[in-house]
Specification:
This protein has 277 residues and is mostly helical. The protein has helices spanning 6-28, 35-41, 44-56, 61-82, 93-107, 112-125, 130-133, 140-152, 160-175, 193-208, 217-224, 226-244, 250-268. α3 (44-56) crosses α8 (140-152), α4 runs antiparallel to α5 and α4 packs parallel to α12 (226-244).
């Protein structure tokens, strides 16, 4: 089994920290949300999805199938027992990740690139029919473009333009932010050409400059256990904070956010001897 990529785990850990705040914000943060926070909370989704695509080329078909099944299983469990909604209805980000890993199985074949390009074209065309294909939180078809972008980063490493695209997208979204959906901060509700451009820039930046992330051991632990943090925090929010906490000021929201980060980074996944060298 190939050794896990340290920088990938660190970036996932960074995304986990922001994801905890972003998922809390829907019920816990008084609107309007600060523009900087909306920018930061828009980073986790492309990091998770782009990295999944980036590392999918290095995994066996059996591992891709198993990991995809695990992600889809937990996506359904969270919807049914956390949010009390039907499976495949609101399209949690885990659905996109699971589908992405499954479709990577044929992509990894010698004849896979043409199929991947066709899927990318379908994702691009979907913007012409948003009412058909862009339903839910993370509609798979447009978001699979970001998964494929991470994948193609292995074969087409020149990504200087990606950062520029992301910068232009973020400037536009900062100036003309979309309305929050049910109080959530991210720029992706609904997904748009500009928010997809921003996500493209995020994936291009973290894959072109992986060492930008500081090498904190607690970040790495969060990244290595990102799925379990996501599942655990989803139930904490669905069964707890979303029912009891509504519209806190930023200081109280930040305290709750920090509490969740510390809870997972130091109590659920505490430091080990390996972390200390």
């Amino acid at each position: 089994m190939a050794k896990r990529e340290t920088h990938g785990d660190l970036w996932r850990g960074f995304a986990v920290v922001l994801m905890l705040g972003a998922n809390l914000a829907g019920s816990s943060l008084l609107a309007p949300h600060p523009p900087l926070l909306r920018f930061l909370f828009s980073l986790p989704a492309p990091i998770f999805i782009g990295l999944a695509g980036f590392y999918s080329v290095r995994q066996s078909a059996q591992k891709l199938f198993f990991r995809g099944a695990i992600l889809l299983f937990w996506a359904v469990i969270i919807d049914l027992f956390g949010w009390n909604i039907g499976a495949f209805q609101e399209w949690d980000v885990l659905y996109v990740l699971g589908i992405g890993l499954w479709i990577s199985i044929p992509f990894n074949q010698p004849w896979g690139n043409p199929i991947a390009i066709l899927v990318a074209l379908a994702g691009a065309i979907s913007f012409g029919f948003p009412h058909l294909f862009h339903q839910g939180w993370f509609p798979p078809l447009p978001w699979l473009l970001i998964f494929l972008l991470g994948r193609f980063r292995n074969e087409f490493p020149r990504v200087a333009a990606w950062g520029t695209i992301g910068l232009l997208g973020s400037l536009y979204l900062w100036a003309f932010p979309p309305n929050t959906r049910l109080g959530y901060s991210e720029w992706y509700y609904p997904i748009s050409v500009f928010s997809l451009a921003f996500a493209t820039g995020v994936v291009g930046t973290i894959t072109a400059f992986p060492r930008l992330i500081p090498q904190f051991s607690w970040l790495k632990r969060l990244g290595q256990n990102s799925l379990w943090v996501y599942v655990g925090s989803s139930f904490i929010i669905a069964w707890g904070s979303s029912r009891w906490i509504h519209g806190w000021k930023f200081s109280l929201f930040a305290f709750l956010w920090l509490l969740l980060v510390v809870f997972f980074a130091f109590f659920i996944f505490p430091p080990s001897k390996k972390d200390h060298g």
